[in-house]
């Protein structure tokens, strides 16, 4: 059995040319010339026989001669029949522009509904959906007068143009005239439109009427499930796949296909626009845990082909999770048993292309409203070490300044991370040069409850990074907890809490909450809304270059433009912020950030970000610290993976 692949097959893209039901007009000619009528009828039959042989040039010749004969005899109904046959022939032979030319003269009130249906079909296939919708809305006032195939074609046009309410209404009208089993693609179109309108429960019920009727229809349902999965609608996709399979063996096959779709959801398509849409809709989300559970169960299947493909799928899933050792060992075992195992070889090829080293160089600079100026530059390197261990090394230099207070120091950190299927454990040792403290450390545990919720716990010791604090050699022993959760495919929330004891016996606490909502992904741009809140507080007011209590609020709008052909993207974030230092009045701080990303060959990329902020209503504090009216941030990084 061949390995299943992840492939979007939108119902809206089905071209149902075979559903064209061209009528055969009765040659109701009041024959005053029997010989002429017989000649016309003979040419008509010869043309139809030529179509059966797919000799369209000969068919056109016969139909044209019959039409000319009818013109000489004034047989208008026969002329219409010949034009209708020629138009249908050209639609079926992939020449819709010629069909459009033939049928255009008949356009108008009272136009034969079959010919109008074919005219809409010609416009659709000629990539003129807007014109087709205009014709339909102008000339079709009574849907019951239009043949089913014409209405179905109109519904398909509206569906492809994302006019889902209109498409739903058209499909529903057809289903009041026909049985669902007689028009299966109308039923599926209706279900798809319901899903796009957010009526998921009704959509599942509508899909269920066509589930397991035939393999072809099941493949359409599965394809629609893949399409929604690529947009993060995993719950709906799961329910669609749950409809499929009349026997246990068939159910296992569709569950395998679903699990592999989860594994391969991040694989690129040949279409850059689809890749961009998928990446932005999914964000950093993956479906490792759900796929792992399904594949582990299917490995025990009595069907050896399903068990084998499930095993290969697990190794691909672990590869995407960063569990390289698990993937490598499993693939080696399979290929030792069968060196020609195509599915295992495909995953092995992906393993070999997967970057295992990453080097990043960076420069950052910022200046805030409290005159804190910070610059840093350095390089960070991470490499796969083996047995799911990753080693890292970072060296950076910091320049901190507030007024006359300055601090300059080096920081070098060596880390080791172990990846597990439930998360990761990370440990790091830090050495400082130019500060009162020489060493620090960090330990982090990241635990994934499922594909939606992640918890991070961190403890460590580090310099308290403010100019005055570093100059005085003040360090901190800190702890933090961070929880992130995907509430809906478009809404993500994250909260964190950190508390620290400083080496001068002061205490520090901070809270933060972030909410991000995806508004839309259209064409080559994506829109998001963001809201953030943070609070920082010291137990005692010391002479650090920061307020002892600060509250920050902000809301923002971000738009990202993607230019895949030149491997470039721009993102502009505009925001409104409010902050309060100590017992001062609240200040207002609108700002904007522009980020440029440029990709290069061999997994290289450049990222440049610039942030500008304007501060209003800032007042002098009790310690006469001067506030700034503007601030900025600049960050530049170059990344290289191999």
Automatic annotation (TrEMBL):
It holds the Pfam family TPR_8. The keyword Protein transport does not apply. Keywords: Signal, TPR repeat. Gene3D superfamilies: Tetratricopeptide repeat domain (1.25.40.10). It comes from the Bacteria. PROSITE patterns: TPR (PS50005). Residues 1-26 form the signal peptide. SMART domains: TPR (SM00028). TPR repeats lie at residues 40-73. This is Tetratricopeptide repeat-containing protein. It comes from Schwartzia succinivorans DSM 10502.
């Amino acid at each position: 059995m061949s390995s299943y692949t992840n492939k979007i097959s939108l119902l809206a893209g089905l071209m149902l040319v075979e559903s064209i039901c061209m009528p055969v007009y009765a040659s109701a000619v009041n024959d005053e010339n029997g010989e002429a009528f017989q000649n016309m009828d003979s040419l008509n039959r010869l043309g139809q026989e030529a179509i059966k042989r797919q000799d369209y040039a000969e068919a056109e010749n016969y139909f044209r001669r019959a039409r000319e004969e009818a013109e000489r005899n004034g047989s208008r109904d026969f002329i219409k029949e010949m034009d209708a046959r020629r138009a249908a022939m050209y639609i079926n032979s992939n020449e819709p522009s010629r069909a459009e030319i033939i049928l255009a003269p008949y356009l108008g009130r009272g136009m034969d509904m079959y010919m109008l249906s074919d005219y809409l079909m010609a416009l659709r296939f000629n990539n003129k959906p807007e014109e087709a919708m205009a014709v339909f809305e102008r000339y079709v006032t009574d849907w019951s007068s239009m043949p089913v195939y014409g209405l179905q074609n109109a519904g398909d046009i509206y569906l492809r143009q994302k006019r889902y309410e209109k498409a739903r209404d058209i499909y529903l009208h057809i289903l009041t005239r026909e049985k669902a089993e007689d028009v299966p693609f109308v039923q599926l179109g209706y279900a798809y439109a319901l899903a796009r309108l957010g009526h998921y429960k009704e959509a599942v019920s509508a899909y269920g009427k066509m589930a397991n009727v035939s393999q072809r229809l099941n493949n359409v349902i599965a394809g629609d499930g893949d399409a929604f999965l690529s947009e993060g609608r995993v719950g709906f996709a799961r329910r669609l796949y749950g409809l499929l399979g009349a026997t246990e063996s068939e159910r296992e096959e569709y569950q395998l296909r679903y699990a592999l779709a989860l594994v391969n959801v991040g694989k690129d398509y040949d279409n850059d626009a689809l890749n961009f849409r998928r990446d932005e809709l999914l964000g950093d989300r993956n479906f490792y845990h759900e796929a792992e559970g399904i594949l582990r169960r299917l490995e025990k299947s009595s069907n050896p082909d399903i068990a084998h493909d499930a095993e290969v799928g697990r190794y691909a899933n672990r590869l995407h999770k960063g569990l390289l050792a698990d993937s490598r060992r499993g693939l080696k075992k399979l290929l030792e048993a069968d060196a020609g195992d195509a599915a295992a070889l495909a995953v092995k090829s992906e393993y070999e292309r997967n970057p295992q080293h990453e080097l990043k160089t960076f420069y950052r600079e910022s200046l805030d409203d409290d005159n804190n100026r910070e610059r840093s530059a350095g390089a960070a390197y991470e490499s796969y070490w083996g047995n799911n261990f990753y080693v890292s090394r970072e060296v950076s230099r910091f320049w901190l300044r507030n007024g006359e207070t300055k601090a300059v120091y080096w920081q070098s950190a060596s880390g080791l991370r172990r990846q597990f299927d439930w998360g990761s454990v990370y440990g790091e040792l830090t050495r400082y040069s130019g500060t009162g403290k020489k060493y620090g450390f960090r330990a982090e545990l990241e635990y994934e409850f499922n594909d939606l919720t992640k918890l991070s716990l961190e403890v460590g010791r580090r310099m308290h990074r403010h100019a005055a604090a570093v100059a005085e050699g003040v360090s901190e022993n800190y702890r933090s907890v961070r929880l992130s959760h995907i509430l809906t495919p478009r809404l993500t929330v994250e909260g964190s809490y950190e508390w620290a004891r400083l080496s001068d016996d002061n205490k520090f606490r901070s809270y933060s909450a972030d909410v991000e909502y995806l508004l839309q992904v259209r064409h080559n741009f994506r829109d998001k809304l963001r809201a953030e809140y943070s609070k920082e507080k010291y137990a005692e007011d010391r002479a650090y270059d920061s307020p002892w209590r600060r509250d920050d609020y902000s809301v923002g709008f971000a738009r990202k433009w993607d230019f895949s052909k030149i491997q470039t993207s721009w993102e502009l974030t505009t925001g409104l912020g409010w902050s309060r230092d100590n017992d001062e009045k609240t200040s207002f701080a609108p700002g904007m950030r522009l980020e440029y990303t440029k990709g290069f060959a061999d997994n290289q990329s450049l990222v440049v970000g610039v942030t500008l902020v304007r501060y209003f209503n800032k007042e002098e504090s009790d310690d006469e610290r001067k506030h700034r009216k503007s601030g900025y941030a600049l960050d530049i990084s170059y990344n290289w993976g191999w």
